[in-house]
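User: I'm putting together a teaching handout on how multi-component assemblies are represented. Below are the sequence lines for each component of a complex, exactly as they appear in our records. Could you produce the 3D structure of the whole assembly as structure tokens, so the students can see both representations side by side? Please keep the chain order the same as the input.
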Amino acid sequence: GQNIDQPTEMTATEGAIVQINCTYQTSGFNGLFWYQQHAGEAPTFLSYNVLDGLEEKGRFSSFLSRSKGYSYLLLKELQMKDSASYLCAVRDRDYKLSFGAGTTVTVRA
Amino acid sequence: IAGITQAPTSQILAAGRRMTLRCTQDMRHNAMYWYRQDLGLGLRLIHYSNTAGTTGKGEVPDGYSVSRANTDDFPLTLASAVPSQTSVYFCASSPGFGGGETQYFGPGTRLLVL
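Assistant: Of course. Below is the structure of the complete assembly, with chains in the same order as your input.
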């Protein structure tokens, strides 16, 4: 099974940078995903890491260290619309996803 | 517009009643999933199907059943609802289940069991 930890809440100012950490323990690692979920809506895909290193996608970047069981999602140039929950999910050797409880990011003007 | 639809959007259900949540996708995805999302617990997998005709149990399958008669539909049935099944239910699908294949989520069904 999986044990996935991420902070419950984070607050940042518009234009700033926020880093959301995710640590995991897994019986078989097969990729890590980050999703964004606005209140009352469905999760939407942000990024995927399977090898160590940084994946950059516009204002969002995601990093993975498999040996440390660690990932982070970096949100740059924060905008008000980035206020949402961010979900870390680990895929196991059976290709099933396990999700963390999510980190609620509040962007203030 | 291609995607996943779920019905109903929301439902209030008396305990003990039977309920089927519907999920349909038109993307011809092979794999489909049902999750429940509860405050503080995140998304938890109930059942999944890697391809039409096959299903499997997830992390929290008790009290739920699924079927996958064809590629597009993946209904979730609560045989006899209990208050602890109050939750938001999300259906998801993915083209396959390897590589960078992400899951696409439906809009959710909000279920209240009284």
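A couple of points students might notice: The mean pLDDT of chain B is 94. Chain B is about 0% helix and 45% strand.
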